[in-house]
Amino acid sequence: MAERIVAEGILTHLGERLRSVRPLGGGCIGEVYRAELEDGTPLVAKVDRDGESHLDREAYMLRYLRERTDLPVPEVFHGSETLLLMEFVEGTNRFSDEAERHAAELLAALHGITADGYGHERDTLIGSLDQPNPWTEDWVEFFRENRLLYAAWAAYGAGRLPGEDLSRVGRLAERLEDLVEEPNPPALVHGDAWRGNVLAKDGRISAFLDPAIYHADPEIELAFISLFNSFGDAFMRRYAEIRPIRHGFFETRRDLYNLYPLLIHTYYFGGGYLGSVQRILERFEE
């Protein structure tokens, strides 16, 4: 079934014929395949038979980054609700110090792209979940309403966040202004820059994958990178040389901002992510 969808899509939209197709790892959004054309050219094909993963929005985000930034991302050849065809990029998820420094330079440059407010010109995705991005002048308001409370209600609605913890998130949300203090100006962020969404080859970053873009305090990107140890000291040192990291990030705001991805992971997976959410909530309880 998937092979037929990929073959028909390649013929219809690229005018090429398919030689072979095989599953690839990953696929939080749809099913992921490596497709090979008759001339041997490899492509990546994502298939969502029900159209619930909004592959057209992933195509939009990749095109946005490719056209408006210097962040390396795969070229999109076709994007619709059910099929995404894009460039196959060589690389691994193992990073030398040299590659980490390159990643820092790329993300620091991305974070130098500003906007008049926090949010984005349209809603995007985090995994396959809608990510609301209404333009908002105030970062604390944006983070409270469209990240922290939004993710908490999503996890609660999925039956994976207890009502007591939803209330604790609400109480914390009321205190954000005291904890965030003065945020950084709006910056374009990749939004999902963990190890599995970055490829490196020969000491350089070859691609960032699966973006979840919007304009934010860029510290939220650094927080998520540190959450899963996607990059280490070489990354942080180089990033700080280019864009100094304000006092209080490592002490306070890193954990605060990581509530968003942890709540999103609780929505998808539950389990140990709920425990991580609860530990951060306990830390910030008065």
From TrEMBL:
Q: Which Pfam families match?
A: Fructosamin_kin
Q: Which InterPro entries match?
A: Fructo-/Ketosamine-3-kinase (IPR016477), Kinase-like_dom_sf (IPR011009)
Molecular function as annotated in GO: kinase activity
List UniProt keywords, sorted A-Z: Kinase, Transferase
The keyword Kinase is assigned to this record: yes
Q: Determine if Cytoplasm is one of this entry's keywords.
A: no
Similarity comment text for this entry = Belongs to the fructosamine kinase family.
Q: What is this protein called?
A: Ribulosamine/erythrulosamine 3-kinase potentially involved in protein deglycation
Q: Which organism is it from?
A: uncultured Rubrobacteraceae bacterium
